[in-house]
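Sync notes, pocket subgroup
Present: LS, DG
LS reminded everyone that the earlier model was apo-only. Rerun requested with FE2/S2 (inorganic) cluster included. Inputs:
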Amino acid sequence: MKTQTVSFTLNGESVTATVPQSWNLLRTLRDHFELTGAKEGCGEGECGACTVVVDGDAVNSCLYPVMEAEGKTIVTIEGLEKTDGGLHPIQDAFLNNNGVQCGYCTSGMIMSAKALLDKNPAPSEDDIRTSISGNICRCTGYVQIVESIDNASKMMK
Ligand code: FES
Ligand code: FES
């Protein structure tokens, strides 16, 4: 299998990986870097469980060829903790507003929320719903997730 070396910034650290050229970013994060927060749901860009933030945008890492990560800045759910090791305000908000049930969609939802709030600290409900329109949750009915992101935006002001 043909391999290639790729270098990028991952959760604030410069990293390099030599992986098969055919791998996507999700597989590289999970199987090479052992960061298993991003989940594989559909593997086809439909569910958002694999969402990570690349250069400020939420992307489906299952569809993102790892070689395109060269030189980029990538943040995963593992990179969200506060410097004191505590939970990030978005994570706190999901816990406090029952935005988590089975949790399979949660890291993707939170990374979509992070990309939104970094660009728009005071989003409307429509903005929030649009930001998670590519993230499927089979448990919550979305209301608690929208409330979680709204609450996070207020806590982060
Ligand atoms: S696993 Fe990537 S969008 Fe579903
Ligand atoms: S909490 Fe179960 S899929 Fe969203």
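DG: The chain has a mean pLDDT of 96.
LS: Strands lie at 3-10, 13-20, 51-54, 57-60, 73-75.
Action: DG to write up.
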